[in-house]
Amino acid sequence: MIPFFEYNWQVRDEWFAWCSRLPEEELVGPRTGGVGSILKTLFHIIDVEYSWIRGIQGKEDIVFGYADYDTLEKVRSLSDRCRGEVTEFLKGYGEGRNEKVVRVPWDEEEYTVDEVMHHLIAHEIHHIGQLSVWARELDLTPVAAHYVGRSLKTLFSN
Amino acid sequence: MIPFFEYNWQVRDEWFAWCSRLPEEELVGPRTGGVGSILKTLFHIIDVEYSWIRGIQGKEDIVFGYADYDTLEKVRSLSDRCRGEVTEFLKGYGEGRNEKVVRVPWDEEEYTVDEVMHHLIAHEIHHIGQLSVWARELDLTPVAAHYVGRSLKTLFSN
C-alpha cells in the first residue's frame, strides 16, 4: 500500500508544479468529465483521501468547501497539511491486509480498512488520468504517469 | 496486489460491455490524449500488462500489433486469452513484496518485480481515467471507477 501513496503524492506534487505554469483561468475553467476542473480535481483527491483516512480511524469528518480552496496555493497548502496526518496513519499501517470493518458517516455500507486503502489509491490514479487528457486538450504535455523509472521518496525517511 | 488486478479486470470487462453499445466509429475514432482512441486504450492496457508479466518471468516478449486487433471482439478476446496466463503468474505471487530484480528487452533500466506490479496496476487505472473523460465528451456515463462497494470476483476461485 505505502509505495502507492508515495507514488500518488509524488505525481500529485508534479501536477502542482505543472499547474503553477498554467494561467489561472485554465486551472479553474470548466472541463468535461471528472469533477469538472483541474483545480477541483486536485482538491477532490485531497478531500476524499483525508476524509476516508480520518473515517477509518473513527475520527470526526472534517468537511472542506471548495470555495475556501479556490487557488492553487490554497489547494497545495491543504494537500501538505492533510498529508502530515495521513502519513502518521500510514506509519502504523504495516504491510499486510487490514480486515477490520469500518463505517463512515457518508456511506451506508461497511468496508474493510484494506478495501478503503485500495479505494483511495485507485481514486487518485483515476482522477490523475483525467487530468492527463485535459492537459493534451490544452496542447500541453501532462505529467508522466509511469510508476517504474521514478525514484520514490520514502514517506518515513524522517 | 491481487485485489487490484481483480478490480482492474472487473472494470475492464465493464468497459468492454460499455463499448459494445457504442458505434464502431466512436470506438476507433481519434481522441485527444492517452494513446488516441478508446479501442487502442484497451488494446494498450492488455498489451502492456501481458508484456511485463512475461518479461518479469524471463519469457520472450510477444509483440501484438494493433492492426490485428482493430475490433472490440478481437481486443476482448485478446484480453481473455492473456488473462489466463497472467492469472497463472499471479497465483504464485503471494502477498509480500517481491524484490527480485528483473530486466525486460524494451527498457534499459532494472526494476524489482514489485515495482513492475505497481506499475501495471497504476497504468491500467490511469488509462481508464482517460476513458472516463472521453465518455463524458460523448455525452455518455462512464463505467464507475469506485473500488469500494463493488463485489470483486476472486481470481483464484476455480
Automatic annotation (TrEMBL), chains A, B:
Q: Which UniProt keywords apply?
A: Metal-binding
Similarity remark: Belongs to the DinB family.
What is the name of this protein?
A: DUF664 domain-containing protein
This protein's species is: Bhargavaea beijingensis
Upper taxonomic classification of the species? Bacteria, Bacillati, Bacillota, Bacilli, Bacillales
